[in-house]
Design a protein that fits this description.
alpha+beta; 2 domains; 42% helix
């Protein structure tokens, strides 16, 4: 059994690196695999996606991971690049509803025990990205989440 782990831009796998050279020596139909990877990752256009290809004889299994939380957040709010160099300027703002949607997409890869905790974890990601949440700073939002202010949106 051979396993190939690569990072691919959603919908843009090609016969060239990193897939082509990794799959070439394995004697598989690279074109079919590239086609399948592109089909499965097209929803993540513009984001880097982890892809795992497992080859066991004639059986080929392609597993597509979920992009990073930061990548999903940037896509959700249409942000080109997050601000990380300053502690005074904010790059943008995201709503609790948008964070809930990102949490739902990402929750399987998170350590959070509930959707509410996953959203709180993503609020922490927003801190490092210099984003406000609902126009407020992260500590204030996390306190409000703990107090149940957003339970109607997130759930308990």
């Amino acid at each position: 059994m051979d396993v190939v782990d690569v990072l691919i831009e959603g919908g843009k796998a090609s016969l060239g690196p990193p897939l082509g050279p990794a799959l070439g020596p394995l004697g598989v139909n690279i074109k079919d695999i590239v086609s399948s990877v592109n089909e499965r990752t097209k929803a993540y256009k513009g984001m880097t996606v982890p892809v795992k290809i497992t080859i066991a004889g004639e059986n080929i299994e392609i597993t597509v991971g979920v992009p990073s939380a930061a990548a999903l957040i940037k896509k959700k709010i249409g942000l080109e690049k997050a601000q990380t160099a300053t502690t005074t300027d904010y790059t943008g703002d995201i709503s609790i509803e948008q964070l809930k949607e990102v949490a739902e997409a990402k929750i399987e890869g998170m350590l959070a025990s509930s959707l509410k905790n996953a959203v709180k974890e993503l609020v922490g990601t927003c801190v490092s990205m210099r984003l406000k949440v609902e126009g407020k700073e992260a500590k204030e939002i996390q306190k409000e989440i703990d107090e149940g202010v957003y339970d109607a949106v997130i759930g308990e």
